[in-house]
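Deliverable D4.2, example record:
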Amino acid sequence: MAAIALFSGAYLGRHSLGFIAPLGALFLSDLLIGFHSQMLVVYGSMALTVCLGWLVAKRRSPASIGLAAVAGSVLFYAITNFGVWAFSDMYPKTLAGLMACYAAAIPFFQNSLAGDLFFTAILFGGFALAERMMPVLREIPTLRTT
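Output generated by the structure prediction step:
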């Protein structure tokens, strides 16, 4: 989802359209899987990743895209785990409880980071390849930020 959010921000720009794809996909999955108490935290994290895409749009390079993908993963890890600590009864509301929450999530972060990097490379690399093969894609105004 983070790769979709980053790509949407980078290519769909500062329009509501940039938020619709990732947040709509999250909402559809929540309809199927079920709603949960951390939805606002998760959706907020994805919205921030769309905003990271805005920064990438100004200068698309493998380095800036990779850095934004890592930043999005770190943001998601930090924000959602803070949300688990703050809004659930799983951990004591102490600094030790917060650190325990973050520590328990490290294995999930590793997988999330790997997936975000992989799918970000697929989306951005695939679209760059498509632009080379079909130059008309470079001319579509809705795919460029202004």
